[in-house]
Amino acid sequence: MKRVHIFDTTLRDGEQAPGASLHPEQKIIIARHLAQLGVDIIEPGFPISSPGDFMAVQRIAQEVTGVEICGFARAVKDDIDAAIRATEAAERRRLHLFLSSSNIHLDFQLRKSREQVIQIARSMVAYAKQFVDRIEYSPMDATRTGDEFLFEMIEAVIEEGATIINIPDTVGYALPEEYGAMFTRVMNNVRGGKGVEYSAHCHNDLGLAVANSLAAIRAGVTQVEVTVNGVGERAGNCSLEELAMAIETRKEALGAETGIQTWHIYEVSQKVSRAMSFPIAFNKPIVGRNAFQHEAGIHQDGLLKNRSTYEIMDPDRLGVPRSMIILGKHSGRHAIKHRVSQFGVELTDDQMESLYVKFKELADRQKVVQDHQLMELIGHTVNTVLEPYTLVQAQVLTGTTGVRMASCTIMDNAGKKELVLSGTGEGPVEALVAGISQALPITVEFTDLELYSLSSGEEANGEAVVTVSANGCHYRGVAVHRDVLMAVAQAYMAACNQAVRDYARHPQAASLANDGEVEITIP
Ligand code: KIV
Ligand code: ZN
């Protein structure tokens, strides 16, 4: 197996995506996660670009160990000096220099001749080489350059001491077979070309960044430059998680492997998405919320028999926490029965049939039937309320100043009493959570909130996905409402109900917070 080195440029090229910029502290946290994820090289920023970026690169070089740190610079002395200073403390480091090579860039952007550009490339690589041995060189816009000049530039920088040749598809123009063949030609024809490492750097303008990177690997490159979630200029860069999982899943076919610790993938993807305020498309491979979810009855049936019927990767190995079966109008009896049994509820055949009819009626009216709604339907079927608590009503007072206040009425279904509670917080969500939490017999921590706008206009709906943790377990509640705060309140209630139900089923595993205050009896 050939070991492919993962060069992560989320914090440099990824951060160049409009609106994605990060504070130094955020960069440091993400860099630590990247190191844990097992990337080989981190390019943490562009040191000359701002004092903040310089500081971020410097701190990452000082504090993040176990990876090579790459200083990024134009082929300009001041840039190189800044990159050298910023990466001084790194355990291992390299310098990455770039200069355009295509006529389009030379004529319209640099306004320099080919001779001048070769001269700059030579002198700047030689300058950088005095300070750092590992020099990566990128002829920018290489895929629109043409062999003759590309070879000339690469030969020149190798002669001056470049040790890694990165050939960027800067504008995402290449097709996979072209990109792979370009590496083969460079490797075979450039003087000194056999003694350096090669790297692929692909942009995704035509949606081909991963395919092009794989073609480069097949042609012999040993490094691929990627970003988490594929963030980057325009349509982004080659996505780390997609490339890593393509290699992992098809390693025999590719004869390659990476050092990525796959079980951190989802967590890192979430961290980057949040830090950059960049939502992940629902259907994004590997990390999108639908990536491992199935609604079609035939698929659900197959999955319940054997996961590999419709899944080529195991989401558990990626740290993906979502349930794979989504209940909706395409779901069949088998999937519903399975979910009912997961709730620990047993139904007779007649009850199951009646539940199925009710389920289909509801599923026809809405896209997805959430767990708490299924619980309610089961409750109607067996004439009992199964959820420990029902949020009867909630109100929240919010505004531009002062604390936010919430009041809510919660039905304690087992104790058959209505609880009227209030809470305050810096924001309306905090106030609602504070109010609802008082009803609970266990300590529940609100760990995460995802909000989605599901439609626009007067009928707009907000979807809230709330994750809580209790007694070392995570629970997720989902609710859709025209008032987004009510969606949050209901989703929180749904997640808490799961935690309380679990506690009621396995009390020995839990520690009571409000010992004995509320008695829970769940049928
Ligand atoms: O896309 C590109 O060309 C780059 C280089 C500067 C490596 O990001
Ligand atoms: Zn790039």
Overview of this structure, please?
- The strands form 4 sheets. The chain has an 8-stranded parallel barrel, surrounded by 7 helices. It has a 3-stranded antiparallel beta sheet with strand order 11-12-13.
- It has 3 domains: 2-276, Aldolase class I (TIM Barrel, Alpha-Beta Barrel); 297-382, no CATH class; 389-507, Alpha-isopropylmalate synthase LeuA, regulatory domain (Double Stranded RNA Binding Domain, 2-Layer Sandwich).
- Helix 6 crosses helix 7 (176-189), helix 7 runs parallel beside helix 8 (209-219) and helix 14 packs across helix 15 (371-382).
- It is an alpha/beta fold.
- It has helices spanning 24-37, 51-63, 77-86, 103-110, 114-129, 147-160, 176-189, 209-219, 240-249, 251-254, 265-276, 297-305, 333-342, 349-365, 371-382, 428-437, 484-505, and strands spanning 2-3, 5-8, 41-42, 68-74, 92-100, 135-140, 164-169, 197-202, 223-226, 256-257, 389-397, 404-412, 417-425, 445-453, 462-470, 473-481.
- The relative contact order is 0.07.
- Strand 11 (389-397) and strand 12 (404-412) form a beta hairpin.
- Bound molecules: 3-methyl-2-oxobutanoic acid (KIV) and zinc ion.
- Belongs to the alpha-IPM synthase/homocitrate synthase family. LeuA type 1 subfamily.
- Residues 4-266 form the Pyruvate carboxyltransferase domain.
- Keywords: Acyltransferase, Amino-acid biosynthesis, Branched-chain amino acid biosynthesis, Leucine biosynthesis, Manganese, Metal-binding, Transferase.
